[in-house]
Design goal:
Chain lengths: 197, 348, 151
């Protein structure tokens, strides 16, 4: 699994993009997209923290992916490739939309999540609320690492390939993000340690 | 358990000629536990998919029949002691003073466990290089599996004594799965714990009995012939045992020289997948897979037997072996009904 | 030795080299502060992993594909993958009608028993790391308190 790398830069040969092949390649694209659709949606959801934003993001990313599909190299990981496009689309969106407040890791909004925390509610499957709110407080690069590694279960290497950064950066971002989440989610963290969750 | 090792000796006689040399450091490591007395503290870390477990262990070893391991999990107010004296093993909770008494696991009677070393040479490529640990000159031995479906083992072997000072196992992807390392280590004179025994005030219960059996004994206990089960390449039968866990269970133990694989079979038609296992489809039917760190459990039904295999091997390799052995299709509603009626009748 | 910073996360995730992990383990043996942080980080990770998976609205994929179709081509064509998927779904449904997979064993210790037995046999192996092998034979309660999610 970990030895598969996605090569975006390698275009298919000219022969592959003749008109006759285009129809098959679109069907292929739909197949590949459907196979990782749920996970792609969750990634978009964790990045934006909002259902309707994540739908928009995913649709936009799917369009870009279809446009870039002739450059997708068969045999490499489609999901990683799509995740990278989703992430890039999201960063574009954040850049265009500067009004949105982005917190720094050092500027801890102490009560942002903790106030009114009710760890007991979590057992009923309501954990997304507080965790996703806390996630939205992380600066985007940190949020992406948490979304990929902790929420989606990818390895550091896979996350690094998607985010186009060194593995060491993934580790240090993940660590700082977890430390910040620990403070923001303190009541839930303590409940988890007691075994109450 | 001697018959099992007689079987092993027979297997050694039949094994192919040694494919590669076993490094001397490894041979010394195997012998060290019979020759060297020591005390120290180890740190043990194991990674399961979701958690790392870190435990500090005080170790006392005397080759004249004494090994005491005191476990203190990091971050938990608990402790356990495993004490092996001669042929007996006691595991107890030092706070509650309760525990279990069983027979100690018995190793091979032949000096070096030669069968295992032959299989090791067949299944692993050994590399050595100089190392140091706790300031002691040592040799690092890396055992890389020839097949990519089982863990790699690395050991740092003390040059002076042959004691393994540090040991790791890495999952097939290269991730660290298990680690033990001495953080302090002192030699002791041989016989230093000769007079010691378990504390007198323990309340001990007898652990379940496990006895070595022949295929005929096993067939009698299971109420029918023992089913042949395919195992991943490179594993050799070490022994067969019978124990009781809600009915007789036959346990066939295999080794590839480093990893251990156990295949359990009991009578039954409808699989009883363990909790938290996940179903995996094979050509024949569904098998259930559960992972615990480097160990994989696969459970399935076939030929009137419920089969379970546990070993330090990748899920895909163990599922493939189950597939080769044969997997029954999921039972029809009708089969469920029959089983329910049978239970009802038995209850009356 | 100074504290461990992001090596703690690497240790938690099992991504360090054996040498690094051994050094971290040795530091943990002596440093209560880092043990506390490790405990917290583990709880944070368990918390994140416990977040339930939300599925996309069922209409989103068909809507997106339809939009892509409209964008990229005006030729209307049936989508064979859709037909194949529908066929597979119906076939799968029929399969489950006919055969019922058994329910998991109600006894939680049943699965643990197999692992315990394996540990006992592994301890007899001449190459065994006894400390580790016996750890697998200890009762679950030894492990559970600090690792509520681990098993």
């Amino acid at each position: 699994m970990s030895d598969v790398r996605v090569e975006l830069a390698a275009p298919l040969t000219a022969g592959d993009s003749v008109a006759a092949g285009r129809e098959t390649s679109r069907e292929q694209f739909a197949d590949l997209l459907a196979a990782c659709w749920d996970r792609a949606f969750r990634f978009a959801y964790y990045l934006t923290g909002d259902r309707s934003d994540s739908e928009d993001l995913l649709q936009q990313a799917a369009e870009e992916a279809l446009r870039a599909f002739p450059r997708f190299q068969p045999g490499t990981r489609f999901d990683s490739w799509l995740f990278r496009i989703i992430h890039n689309s999201y960063l574009d969106h954040v850049r265009k939309n500067r009004r949105r407040r982005v917190f720094s890791l050092d500027d801890l909004p102490a009560d942002a999540v903790g106030a009114g925390a009710d760890p007991a509610a979590v057992a009923d499957g309501l954990l997304d609320g507080p965790v996703l709110r806390a996630l939205q407080l992380l600066p985007p690069p940190f949020r992406a690492v948490v979304a990929l590694v902790d929420l989606q279960g990818l390895s550091y290497e896979e996350a690094a390939a998607i985010l186009r950064c060194p593995v060491g950066t993934v580790r240090s971002r993940l660590h700082r993000a977890r430390l910040a989440l620990r403070e923001w989610l303190r009541p839930y963290v303590d409940a988890m340690k007691r075994g109450d969750l | 358990m001697r018959p099992a090792w007689a079987l092993l000796v027979a297997a050694v006689a039949a094994a192919p000629p040694q494919a590669a040399a076993v490094p001397p450091a490894l041979q010394r490591a195997v012998l060290a536990s019979r020759e060297v007395a020591y005390a120290g503290e180890q740190i043990v870390a194991t990674w399961t998919g979701r958690a790392v477990r870190t435990v500090l262990v005080r170790v006392e070893h005397d080759p004249d029949g004494w090994t005491r391991l005191e476990y203190r999990p990091v971050g938990a107010p608990l402790g356990w002691v495993v004490l092996q004296k001669g042929r007996e093993q006691v595991r107890y909770d030092p706070a509650r003073r309760t525990g279990v008494r069983t027979a100690a696991p018995v190793g091979p009677d032949d000096e070096l466990g030669d069968g295992h070393l032959t299989w090791l040479a067949e299944n692993y490529r050994a590399e050595t290089r100089p190392a140091t640990w706790l300031g002691r000159p040592a040799t690092e031995v890396r055992l890389r599996p020839v097949r990519g479906d089982r863990p790699e083992r690395r050991m740092v072997v003390d040059d002076r004594t042959g004691v393994v000072l540090r040991s790791e196992r890495l999952a097939p992807g290269g991730l660290l799965g298990e680690l033990t390392a001495f953080v302090s280590f002192d030699l002791r004179p041989r016989g230093w714990r000769a007079g010691a025994g378990p504390p007198a005030d323990l309340r001990l219960t007898a652990g379940p009995a496990v006895r070595a059996v022949t295929p005929e004994d096993a067939a009698r206990a299971l109420g029918g012939p023992v089913l042949a089960v395919s195992v991943p390449d490179g594993f050799y039968l070490v022994g067969t045992y019978l124990s009781d866990a809600s009915g007789p269970v036959l346990q066939a133990v295999y080794s590839d020289g480093v990893a251990t694989l156990v295949v359990y079979q009991r009578a039954g038609r409808i699989a009883r997948p363990p909790r938290d296992s996940r179903p995996v489809r094979t050509a024949g039917g569904v098998v259930w897979v559960q992972s615990l760190g480097l160990r994989t459990l696969v459970h399935w039904a076939h030929g009137g037997r419920l089969l379970t295999a546990v070993g330090e091997i990748s899920p895909s390799a163990l599922v493939a072996a189950a597939g080769r052995s044969g997997v029954a299709a999921a039972p029809r509603l009708w089969d469920h009904l029959l089983a329910w009626l049978a239970d009802l009748v038995r209850g009356l | 030795m100074r504290h461990l910073s992001d090596r703690l996360s690497g240790y938690l995730d099992g991504t360090l080299t054996p040498e690094e992990a051994a050094a971290v383990a040795a530091h943990l043996a002596e440093c209560a502060e880092c043990r506390g942080i490790l405990d917290d980080l583990q709880a944070v990770r368990s918390l994140l992993r416990a977040v339930p998976h939300r599925a996309p609205p069922p209409s989103l994929l068909p809507r997106t594909l339809a939009r892509l179709e409209a964008l990229s081509s005006s030729r209307g064509r049936r989508r064979p993958w859709l037909v194949a998927a529908a066929t597979a779904a119906v076939a799968g449904w029929l399969l489950f009608q006919v055969r019922i997979p058994p329910a998991p064993d109600s006894d939680r210790s049943a699965g643990a028993w197999y692992f315990h037995q394996h540990a006992a046999f592994a301890a007899a192996h001449p190459m065994a790391d006894l400390t580790l092998a016996y750890l697998g034979m200890l009762p679950d309660e030894v492990h559970r308190p600090s690792f509520p999610q681990g098993w």
